[in-house]
Amino acid sequence: MIKRISILLMALVPTMLWAQFAPEAGVAGTTAMHADSSAFVAWATGCTVDRGPQQIDDLSLGLVSYGADDDALGKADNMVVSLGDGGTAVLTFASPICNAQGPDFAVFENPFHNTPHCFLELAFVEVSSDGENYFQFPAVTNVPSDVQMGGFGVMEASLIHNFAGKYEVMYGTPFDLDELEDDAKLDKSHITHIRLVDVIGTINPEYATYDSEGHIVNDPWPTPFWSSGFDLDAVGVIHDAAHNDVAENAEKVISMYPNPVKDCLTVKVENLQSVEVYNLMGQQVMAATTPIIDFGSLNQGIYFVRVKAGGKTVTERIVKQ
């Protein structure tokens, strides 16, 4: 009996080790952010795409051609521009993105469900504060690379981290500037450019791309179509310089505690007008006009609490334990 239990545990260990990141949208513990989330204060205003080939080992097929650069501007709307194998997109913003508490921006692609998981096309995410020096988020994939994923393959979101394209259409993948190492050439309080680099997806070492830990990135390939590769929908801004100055001033007169919270959240402010609580999908889950907010009935996860008081408004990221 003991031997059988030991064998069962050994069989389960690899699964537990592989599936270690946030799961699909709608599943407890997800970090997926819906385009309607109140956390977004702005969207990309400029985009330049350098398209890649439809299939990197057969250049006779030509470059991808689906969509236009402007399709990546503004709020996510499922209008996309395709990057192709190894293609890139550089996005700019009306106000620089800045580093604050929690995720600072989110990238939207158009993955679709192919039960039980999603058809995901991934991209590396890089940021720059001068448009010349770029720094890549430490992306990790635990998707096995011994067998090539087919052109219409699906994967579990819980196997990947810090890749754009992790979540289904209209749900953005959030990125936190705190996850980047400090560097003299990167001003995290003044991010002016975001660059997305398509993950080619082949496990052929001649063309393969690798994550931050040296793993080959295996995603749907080949996709020899005019819409091949990462399909960029939008980049939503959560923290930027224009809104951060206003928020900092508001935070001097508005405070919320404890954070994380288990039961009740206290809002300390004079002339309270309203309190609204939103989940990551942008859905309002609670509204009140009192300073004590009961979080006890909410599921564990991340919420955004918007407080209006005395003509000022501040939104804070609150973790429910």
What layout of secondary structure does this protein have?
Blueprint lengths: L1 H17 L14 E2 L7 E2 L2 E5 L30 E2 L5 E10 L7 E4 L3 E3 L2 E3 L3 E6 L6 E2 L3 E2 L18 E2 L9 E5 L15 E8 L32 E2 L1 E4 L3 H11 L3 E3 L6 E5 L3 E8 L4 E5 L3 E3 L6 E9 L2 E9 L1
Antiparallel strand pairs: 1-13, 2-16, 3-5, 4-15, 5-14, 6-13, 6-16, 7-8, 9-10, 9-14, 11-12, 17-18, 18-21, 19-20, 19-22, 22-23
Verbal overview:
With 321 residues, the chain is mainly β. Helix content is 9%, strand content 32%. It has two helices and 23 strands. The protein has helices spanning 2-18, 241-251; strands at residues 33-34, 42-43, 46-50, 81-82, 88-97, 105-108, 112-114, 117-119, 123-128, 135-136, 140-141, 160-161, 171-175, 191-198, 231-232, 234-237, 255-257, 264-268, 272-279, 284-288, 292-294, 301-309, 312-320. The strands form seven sheets. The protein has a five-stranded antiparallel β-sheet, with no helix packed on it. It has a five-stranded antiparallel β-sheet with strand order 3-5-14-9-10, with no helix packed on it. It has a four-stranded antiparallel β-sheet with strand order 20-19-22-23. The longest helix has 17 residues, at 2-18. It starts with a helix and ends with a strand. The model is unreliable at 1-17 (pLDDT under 50).
Low-pLDDT segments: 1-17
Terminal-residue CA separation = 37 Å
Strand order in the sheet with the most strands: 1-13-6-16-2
Q: Helix proportion of residues, in percent?
A: under 10%
Number of strand segments: 23
Query: What gyration radius follows from the Cα positions, in whole Å?
Result: 21 Å
Structural class of the helices, strands and pairings? mainly beta
